[in-house]
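Weekly structure sync, notes
Attendees: PL, DS, HV (note-taker this week)

Item 1: Small ribosomal subunit protein bS6
DS walked through the input record. Source organism listed as Saccharothrix saharensis. Sequence as pasted into the shared doc:
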Amino acid sequence: MVFMRHYEVMIILDPSLDERTIAPSLDTFLNVIRTTGGNVEKVEVWGKRRLSFEINKNAEGIYAVLDLISTPDAVKELDRQLGLQETVLRTKVIRREPAKAAKTAARIAAKAAAKA
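Item 1 (cont.): predicted structure, written out as tokens:
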């Protein structure tokens, strides 16, 4: 059995990008999570914010936060793929509390079992 965990991924993107295209472009990366049986709970685009220090000569960045339930390997692969993109300035992956993730992972497993 593969253990699913709850993760939060924060992404800082190049401020020159069009904010309307961010969620659809992130969706292609999130297929890594979906194909491994994970679930994307929420995708929030916070918009353009001022950075506390410059990153690649940018004083601003577009923030996006992803709420995921997935395997550690799939999240690692997602982070790797995001890091290869020139438009991604920074990423940060945080593992959330296990109690809530266990309940949600059990719910996802029950749905998958019901489909089979």
